[in-house]
Amino acid sequence: LSLWHGGANQRQVSRNEFPALVRVAKAMGLTQQASTGHYAHSVLHNSQTTQTAPIDARSFDWHGWLEQEKRNRTMYLLLLTDAAMVMYFNAPAQFDPLEIRLMLPADDAAWDARDELECASALGLHGPQAQARNITGTRRPTQPGMRDAIRTLMEPAAAFAPSSTNAYAKFILVHAIIVKVIACQKTILLQDGAWQGFNFGLGGSGPATPLSQNDWLDVHSGATSGPLSASNSGHATPTDTAGSLQMAAQQEKKRLGNALDKWKRNWDYDLELQYPPGQSHRRFGFSRDGVHFFYLGRSFFQSQRPSDWTLPADKRFQQVMALLKRIKGFVLGDKEVRGHDIGSVGDISELYGLDDLTLNMKLLFKPYNSLLDSPIAGVRTSL
C-alpha cells in the first residue's frame, strides 16, 4: 500500500523490503501447488489430475480448493507487485513468470462464494443450469496454468479457446509479458553494460532472467532443463557475448510483440462473451481492467529512449502515470467503438501522481455513490 500512498520515504522502504517478501514466498513454496496430504491440496487446481479423471461434484473439497486458491491469489498479488516495481519504478524483477507453476485465478463467482454449494455451482460442477451467479468468468471448473498460458501467447500457431481465461487472468498475463518486454528493451538500449538482467547463460544470472530460445523450446516441449549454464557458452569474448545478447533480445522482443497482439485479440473477443455491451456487470477494480496495460506495454515496446530505463524510481513513476493517463484516450475510443465501459483505470484522478509525489490513494477511486448510485455520500471504493 505504501507504494501508492504517502511520501518518497515510504515508497523507498517498500521497494527495499519487497525482495525479502519474495524470498519468504518462495521458501513457503507458493510458486507451486500444494502436494497431496497438504491442507491446501486441491484436485481442481491440479491440471494433470483434472485431465485424466472426471470431476465429481460429490467429491469436491471446498476447504482444500479455497486454501489453494488463497495461495494462488497471494502469489499472483506478489507477481503483480513485482511487475509494478519493474514498470513504475525501474526496479529489477524478482520473479520469472515461468517459475509460477500454478493455475491462473478461478472465476470471481467461485472465489466470492459463501458456501460449498455456491462455489461448486459457480465452477459448473452441478451443470451449466446452476451457474447463474457466474456471468463474467470462464464458467469452467479449472483454469489454464500460468506456464501454459504464456506458452500459448508466445507460440505463433497457438491460440486460446474462447472464454478460457477470465479478466483477472488476462490482467496477470499482460503484466508478465510487459516485464519481459522491459527486460528486452534494457538489453537492447542499454548497450554500455548498465543493465545485466537479460541473460542467456553467457555470464551472471539474476532473479528473473528471461529464457533463451532453447529454454522456450524446453518449456514448449515439456522438458524441465534449466537455463543454459555458463560452461555451455564456450570461450566467447565480451564482444561476442554482447552481440549474442543483443540478437537474442531482438528475437525475444519480436515474439513478445506478437504475444501482446494476441493478448489484445483474446481480450476483445472474450470481453464480448463475459461482459456483453449493455449489461450491468461493470469491471470494478484495476485488476479487471487489463486493456490499458496492453497500450502501456506497446508504449514500452516502441520506446527508443535509453533514459526511460535509467530514471530514478520516483521520476519514472511520474512518467509512467502520465503515460497511463494519456492511454485512457485510446481506451475511450476503443470503448465507443465496441460499446464497453472503460473500467476502473478510467476512474483515476488526473491529479494522482502529478504533484510533489506525496500520493493520496483516494485519488485512485471515484466516490462509491457515483459508481453504484449509493445514498452514502463520500464513501470510496476499497481495495
From TrEMBL:
Recorded hits in InterPro entries, A to Z, give: VerF-like (IPR051059)
Name a GO CC annotation attached to this entry: nucleus
Q: Which UniProt keywords apply?
A: Metal-binding, Nucleus, Repeat, Zinc, Zinc-finger
Q: Name one GO molecular function term.
A: RNA polymerase II cis-regulatory region sequence-specific DNA binding
Q: Does the keyword Repeat apply?
A: yes
Question: Where in the cell?
Answer: Nucleus
Which parts of this chain are annotated as the region Disordered? 222-243
Q: Does the keyword Repeat apply?
A: yes
Return the protein name: Transcription factor domain-containing protein
